[in-house]
Specification:
Length: 466
């Protein structure tokens, strides 16, 4: 089997196949209709570079020691094999198109070539204009806006990065077909990551009057201040800066909230079209039946709770390769092992079996059963929102939030963290969060302070110290 690994940047489950009623995503929905869809898959850290290095190496951020953008795991943590490297060493041609690894030092300015890839990774030439002033304002001038529907013919080079990536991926599929080579092709799309820069015709799918505000646009009353993200990234765009929104809590004006949501939907439909073109090409070259297609995002997507860190071992098993061993307790010296177990067993679980298991668990506060759990983490520079709260550099990290997610709840503890020796001090808990997601799906009502949560604490500690 070949592997086509599609990774999308900052995609929420705003897709028809995840139940969104407004979005138009026919191509991804069609893929989903023939796929195993995970509705509770979690990234290990919701920041591009740490997330990607985590799932591409099969190790957690505490093992890659990458929480920001500024170190290369092979020199900073351990010389870990990556998923594409493993396929390459097992006879596959491995190819990277677009944003797969995060560019820059976190992949040694080479997307980890030559270790991970058979040929130098492809980057769309239009990528360099992503944050330039290419968005036409009402005054006719060009700005670097957050909300940025464009006339593609007016763009530098007359194209957009994701269009170029699709074209290159299709070209490579044809080469693989002609040469009859077994391949692992990773295609990384930039959208719908901000800026929301996409062909303006997609706006027509979403009239502004049909766009609602978020179901919970306010700051939750009991949210600990350490948990709040002041979205510095968004504030720096010209259109948002002009709104003079107060730091850190905003709010953004309602009509602008609607415009952001409208453009997010439009950017998802634009992405969906690229995915459709790519999958059509896979069909056209006759490789659909012999290719495993993975579609995932870097910031968190059966009922089973799963983790992106399991992708490496799962794909190895699906492709018939030897599954890399589970990492020992400390694994900095071990080149090939993974911290996420293969989840291939779930592909054979019938819906009834899942229901049965759920029925057996009626106590939402149970702690020590074997239900699937996903772990994630997120660093902060301080207890209160700072300009760098969403993306602190390693040296500025003072607090680490560790989260444990099951079908029933999310439990988070924010604990003291020392960036010099990478140690988290669980005796120094700064704040906590507990949400029962069945009754509070948007996680607006933090009940940490009104609940005895000792057994949750023991459980997360048991996992992290194992
Ligand atoms: C790291 O691993 C790669 C292959 O996995 C190997 O070629 C390279 O020599 C190793 N580097 C070091 C410093 O051990
Ligand atoms: C990183 O890239 C540089 C320049 O290409 C190269 O000399 C160096 O060996 C690479 N680092 C590792 C660990 O492979
Ligand atoms: C917008 O909403 C109206 C009223 O609900 C509906 O009839 C129309 O189809 C919607 N338009 C789009 C493009 O979804
Ligand atoms: C921006 O808002 C602050 C108060 O939040 C106000 O003092 C200031 O005058 C405003 N600036 C502009 C340019 O509107
Ligand atoms: C792919 O598999 C399906 C179902 O097994 C079959 O109907 C179809 O003809 C196959 N297509 C190709 C191109 O082999």
């Amino acid at each position: 089997m070949n592997v086509l690994f599609i990774v999308v940047d900052d995609l929420r489950p705003v897709l028809g196949c995840y139940g969104d009623k407004l979005v138009k995503s026919p191509n991804i929905d069609q893929l989903a209709s023939q796929s195993f869809v995970f509705s509770n898959a979690y990234a290990q850290q919701a920041v591009c570079a740490p997330s990607r290095v985590s799932f591409l190496t099969g190790r957690r951020p505490d093992t890659t020691r990458l929480y920001d953008f500024y170190s290369y795991w092979r020199v900073h943590a351990g010389n870990y094999s990556t998923m594409p490297q493993y396929f390459k060493e097992n006879g596959y041609v491995t190819l990277s198109v677009g944003k797969v690894f995060h560019p820059g030092v976190s992949s040694n300015y080479s997307d980890d070539y030559p270790y991970s890839w058979s040929i130098p990774p492809f980057h769309p030439s239009a990528e360099k204009y992503e944050n330039d002033k290419t968005c036409r304002g009402k005054d006719g001038k060009l700005y670097a806006n957050l909300v940025c529907p464009v006339d593609v013919t007016e763009m530098p080079s007359g194209t957009l990065p994701d269009i170029q990536s699709t074209e290159e991926a299709i070209r490579l599929l044809n080469v693989m077909k002609t040469n009859k080579q077994k391949f692992f092709l990773a295609v990384g799309y930039h959208k719908p990551h901000i800026p929301l820069r996409y062909p303006q015709e997609f706006l027509k799918l979403y009239p502004l009057e049909n766009i609602t505000l978020a179901p919970d646009p306010w700051v939750p009353e009991k949210l600990p201040s350490v948990a709040y993200n002041p979205w510095t990234d968004i504030r720096q765009r010209d259109d948002v800066e002009a709104l003079n929104v107060s730091f850190p809590y905003g709010p953004l004006p309602d009509d602008f909230q609607r415009q952001i949501r409208q453009s997010y939907y439009a950017a998802v439909s634009y992405l969906d079209m690229q995915v459709g073109l790519l999958l059509n090409a896979l069909d056209d070259v006759g490789l659909s039946n012999s290719t495993i297609v993975v579609f995932t995002a870097d910031h968190g997507l059966s009922e089973k709770v799963v983790e992106l860190v399991s992708l490496f071992s799962t794909l190895a098993e699906l492709a018939g390769l030897q599954v890399p061993p589970v990492c020992p307790k400390t694994s900095f010296h071990v080149a090939l092992c993974t911290e996420g177990a293969s989840i291939v067993q779930y592909f054979n679980t019938s819906e009834e079996k899942v229901e049965e298991e759920k029925d057996g668990c009626d106590d939402p506060y149970r702690c020590f059963n074997e239900e699937p759990v996903a772990f994630s983490q997120y660093p902060r520079p301080a207890d209160t929102p700072q300009w760098n709260s969403d993306k602190p550099k390693l040296k500025d990290i003072r607090i680490m939030g560790y989260s444990m997610r099951t079908i029933d709840y999310r439990y988070t503890v924010w604990v003291q963290f020392n960036p010099n020796n990478f140690s988290a001090n669980f005796e120094d808990v700064h704040a906590g969060e507990l949400y029962m997601v069945e009754t509070d799906p948007n996680q607006d009502y933090n009940i940490y302070n009104n609940t005895s949560h000792g057994c949750f604490f023991k459980k997360i500690l048991g996992f992290l110290k194992r």
